[in-house]
Amino acid sequence: MAKECDVAVIGAGTAGLAAERKARACGAATVLIDPEFSGTTCATVGCMPSKLLIAAAGVAHGVAGAGEFGIRASHSIDGAAVMQRVRRFRDEFAQGVRDQIADLPNGVARRGRARFTAPGELELDNGERIRAKAVVLATGSAPSLPGPFRDLGDLVLTNRDVFELEDLPESLGVIGAGPIGSELAQAFARLGVRVEVFDRGETLAGLPPESSAHLRRLLEREMALHLGVDPKVEALGSEVQVSIDGHSARFERLLVATGRPPQLDGLDLQAAGIRVEKGGMPHVDPQTLQVGTTAVFLVGDANGDRPLLHEASDEGAIAGHNAAHFPELSIARRKLPMAVTFTRPSAAVIGTIPDGRDDLVTGCADYADQGRARVEGRAGGLLRLHAQKATGRLVGADLCIPDGEHIAHLLAWTISRGTSVSDALNLPFYHPTTEEGIKPALRELCAKIDRVPAWDEDEGNPPGH
């Protein structure tokens, strides 16, 4: 006999755990299905192990640059110890998630791969059947490995296995200059690995061209970047050769970071009455997460809309609530979009970017001469703020600046509150901080929208005053 429940959640990642938790809090009888229950993508192969590697790279970079401050320091990098620490802390984070799963009420967790056999009816690969009033799909995403790279065998790495390296490679080719590729490429380069990055696109880390150009100039001090190219790869013994017009190089390993498409294969969505559109994706309402008019909800990386941890958590909670109350749906007010790439300087895209829109104006701040950044030997980068020309309200930003991940949060909070340019300029700015580097962009916006702030005493003062 099939197990009956109110809400079945497929996938025990960040989105799935949030969905199950919210549905159960709403009084629903829940089932959480996963083939492994190994922990979230963030804890196991994403956010946390990458930040552990970046942290080690930051320490190495700081020691290597100590001479700029008159400090003599020597250092050697123990690659095996670096990777061992990455895995040790990674495993602790993942175990924390598994402990959370172990604390679920009896009967909630079901191990297996699920597919639809009819609307509201699921079958696991172990033969178990589940009948649910509503289903939340939180199956996540998986690294893309295009055809030419599959023939390279163990020479190829993705974010799923790069952290399993026992030692740092001598050299690393990176295919893909998006957030994952850019972060890991710089981290390995700072740890003494010879790194080159190749990408068909012209920009880095998902940034608009203007801020991407600044980030490119800064990253090229540490590694070779080849953008707008079509790399060809082949295995030559124990190495991989990557070739583009006029250049070829051999690497000990090749990291492929060409995206993480949603994992929906094997679910038999058609059996659930779900219409799959062009590209293999169904239509999802971004405010309710409902798939079409069905009792199915699609969340997190699996819907491909905002593949970020905080978005996955929010979407899981929205879908869990709506699944528990189906067919009654609540429309959620989604948070302002914000994406951060943890290069150094860190990069971010927040809210709305003009992209040719004539109703928006832009103000810029160049961090090449920013006082605090110069003091700390971190000068360089660009901040762009965007506002509505008619109202003066801030609507977005893109940046690659020192402390960018923190300033991005301040800007996201300010933009979310509907703050005007002049009101933002009248907020307190402490000196000397990287935050006060925002002010030139705000002043430029004030001039463009003809709104003079009530008080801006520092206008015209040099950056180091």
Automatic annotation (TrEMBL):
Residues 6-316 form the FAD/NAD(P)-binding domain. Keywords: FAD, Flavoprotein. Residues 340-440 form the Pyridine nucleotide-disulphide oxidoreductase dimerisation domain. This is Dihydrolipoyl dehydrogenase. Its cofactor is FAD. The keyword Flavoprotein applies. GO terms for molecular function: flavin adenine dinucleotide binding; NAD(P)H dehydrogenase (quinone) activity. It comes from the Bacteria.
